């Protein structure tokens, strides 16, 4: 069946890395018999330039209708001084909000050939493969009441509210349990149940849900301890599930275990509709990298690995995703490196040449 794929390359290095992704999509169509119906759209600064808004209603509607959305990156100095409502990032925020992408999947995977680039000792991260599932649409970033108030005594007060309902906890925990089932069957749920009611509820509800996933080994950990354990002994983890705020911090922390921003993919999943189709957005973790944009220098692997996540999670094409992951591992192990992951004795390649090598490896 034809898989509807919307590509939003965005700004800066977005279009450059996406060009390599498209070459690989074409390879999968020609050589593996996959069939996609791909359309392109604008998001971020390029959309502001053309339409005056970072995301048009038409493009938003296309995203809602697509089986998966693949995004490059948005933003850049050209648009930095615009008012908040029409900044490039707003396009991304609207996509996340309207598609109700509540589960953010951030793998922290260390390629053997890059283990030495980690901020930690090589032996601590060799073979590391963690998946952090961060709740993305609730919690303290959205809870009401919020705002800055003037108090009668002349003080000002900044207020945010951490709230989670049972259904919000269940739906993200389900995604995490299901993922654990396809991986190492271990799930660690992270909160601060010792000092927060929302954390206590989180722990109780995840524990209840565990009844449906008896084959998964569930553990609970306080967020501060988890931050410490990620740096002390990261390989103890398989899948981690946590709220929006803690997930923001822990996923950035885990990212640094892997060395380079140019290697990190992500997926954001929404609710499944009546036909079981889940809205989904795939994007590299990095931004538009204005400092290297337009120079064919960017590492396309983060975006290519995001494509691999799309194959795996939106289309259940695990074998094809494995092919692409393995090609990336091989190319890096073969010493082909863009500037961001360059090491002594390796061959420096451009964005395009990295794409060439991936195709050869495939
Ligand atoms: P950035 O991720 O764009 O760049 C940080 C550093 O990492 C830069 O030195 C860059 O050259 C390097 N880098 C990033 N991706 C790379 C890749 N694939 N290959 C090689 N090197 C890479 O973050 P920064 O500089 O904070 O933000 C730049 C712009 O991107 C801003 O306008 C920001 O708002 C936007 N941004 C967009 C994001 C998105 O679209 N999801 C996420 C983060 C930032
Ligand atoms: Mg962050």
Keywords:
single chain; alpha/beta; Isopropylmalate Dehydrogenase; 2 domains; ten-stranded mixed beta sheet; two-stranded antiparallel sheet; binds 1,4-dihydronicotinamide adenine dinucleotide
In brief:
The chain is of the alpha/beta class and 362 residues long. Helices cover 40% and strands 23% of the residues. The protein has two domains: 1-109 and 263-362, 3-Layer(aba) Sandwich (Isopropylmalate Dehydrogenase); 129-257, 3-Layer(aba) Sandwich (Isopropylmalate Dehydrogenase).
Question: Could you walk me through the main structural features you see in this protein, from its secondary elements to its overall organization?
Answer:
NAD(+) binds at residues 76-89, 287-299. The record marks 141, 192 as: Important for catalysis. It comes from Dongia soli. The protein has two domains: 1-109 and 263-362, Isopropylmalate Dehydrogenase (3-Layer(aba) Sandwich), CATH 3.40.718; 129-257, Isopropylmalate Dehydrogenase (3-Layer(aba) Sandwich). It has helices spanning 14-32, 45-51, 57-65, 88-98, 122-125, 166-182, 197-209, 223-232, 244-257, 301-313, 318-333, 351-361; strands at 3-10, 36-41, 68-73, 101-109, 129-135, 143-150, 156-161, 186-191, 217-222, 239-242, 265-272, 278-284, 336-337, 347-348. The strands form three sheets. A ten-stranded mixed β-sheet has the order 2-1-3-12-11-4-5-10-8-9, sandwiched between helices. It has a two-stranded antiparallel sheet with strand order 6-7. The model has no long low-confidence stretch (mean pLDDT 95). With 362 residues, it is α/β, with parallel strands linked by helices. Helix 1 (14-32) packs across helix 10 (301-313). The two termini are 23 Å apart. The structure holds 1,4-dihydronicotinamide adenine dinucleotide and magnesium ion.
